[in-house]
TrEMBL record:
<dbReference type="InterPro" id="IPR050541">
    <property type="entry name" value="LRR_TM_domain-containing"/>
</dbReference>
<feature type="domain" description="LRRNT">
    <location>
        <begin position="15"/>
        <end position="51"/>
    </location>
</feature>
<keyword id="KW-0812">Transmembrane</keyword>
<protein>
    <recommendedName>
        <fullName>Leucine-rich repeat-containing protein 3</fullName>
    </recommendedName>
</protein>
<dbReference type="InterPro" id="IPR000372">
    <property type="entry name" value="LRRNT"/>
</dbReference>
<dbReference type="InterPro" id="IPR032675">
    <property type="entry name" value="LRR_dom_sf"/>
</dbReference>
<dbReference type="InterPro" id="IPR001611">
    <property type="entry name" value="Leu-rich_rpt"/>
</dbReference>
<feature type="signal peptide">
    <location>
        <begin position="1"/>
        <end position="22"/>
    </location>
</feature>
<keyword id="KW-0433">Leucine-rich repeat</keyword>
<feature type="transmembrane region" description="Helical">
    <location>
        <begin position="188"/>
        <end position="209"/>
    </location>
</feature>
<keyword id="KW-0732">Signal</keyword>
<comment type="similarity">
    <text>Belongs to the LRRC3 family.</text>
</comment>
<dbReference type="Pfam" id="PF01462">
    <property type="entry name" value="LRRNT"/>
</dbReference>
<keyword id="KW-1133">Transmembrane helix</keyword>
<keyword id="KW-0472">Membrane</keyword>
<dbReference type="InterPro" id="IPR003591">
    <property type="entry name" value="Leu-rich_rpt_typical-subtyp"/>
</dbReference>
<dbReference type="GO" id="GO:0005886">
    <property type="term" value="C:plasma membrane"/>
</dbReference>
């Protein structure tokens, strides 16, 4: 009995990161790394973790495959960090099983839509200095956002000054479509490029015709300058 008691008292997280506390919550493994002044995501997180709390640290980036080896992961709390960059494949390997992802209260201005649209998790994106653009609009329309925090997704910067400081949802409800603005910009750029090529083609044709005309005139003048053939004497 003493032996089994000893086994139960041994922490499960023998590979627990030094700055974290490893425990169990409702029978599931949890790694708690809150407020530990971490500047990056620990690399020695146990593989069977289900709940991961990394909130209130100084993490600035979520690199590709940051959680790929954590196949049991269901909840990630990355709120109240200093995250500015999220790679496209940041959540590769955990997209299917992840149920909750908290990225609120960071420094995120933009995010690759591929990083979030593959997730089935409920997302919290509030209180970030968002640049309102097409990618963010698509995330709002297609991702599973936490309904309680949607109103706190605010335009810190935007293509037009009148949208700054307003909730993104309010701007979109007013009929603004950032994706159509981008499409129009691309269409105008394509039109200008095609017009430039067409103008170059016209100039080339005009120069070619003028050059041939000058050559023809010179040839005609040369022929007219030749002495006329004299008739043969009888």
């Amino acid at each position: 009995q003493a032996f089994f008691c000893l086994l139960l008292c041994i922490p499960w997280g023998s590979s627990c990161p030094p700055s974290c506390q490893c425990t169990e919550r409702a029978g599931a493994k949890a790694v708690l790394c809150s407020s530990q002044h971490l500047e990056e995501i620990p690399k020695d997180i146990p593989r069977d973790v289900v709940f991961l709390k990394l909130d209130a640290n100084s993490i600035t980036r979520i690199p590709s495959n940051a959680f790929r080896h954590l196949s049991h992961l269901e909840e990630i709390d990355l709120s109240r960090n200093a995250i500015e960059k999220i790679d496209r494949a940041a959540f590769k390997g955990v997209a299917a099983g992840l149920r909750s992802l908290d990225l609120s209260s960071n420094r995120i201005r933009s995010i690759p839509k591929e990083a979030l649209l593959a997730l089935n998790a409920k997302l919290r994106l509030a209180n970030n200095p968002w640049h309102c653009e097409c990618a963010l609009q698509e995330v709002l329309w297609e991702a599973r956002l936490d309904l309680d925090s949607v109103q706190d997704i605010t335009c810190h910067t935007a293509p037009r000054q009148e949208y700054v400081g307003k909730p993104l949802l309010q701007v979109l409800d007013a009929g603004v479509n950032f994706c159509s603005v981008r499409q129009r910009t691309m269409d105008v750029a394509m039109f200008v490029t095609m017009f430039g090529w067409f103008a170059m083609l016209i100039v080339y044709v005009v120069c070619y015709v003028r050059h041939n005309r000058e050559d023809s005139c010179r040839h005609r003048d040369y022929l007219s300058s030749l002495p006329s053939a004299q008739p043969c004497a009888d």
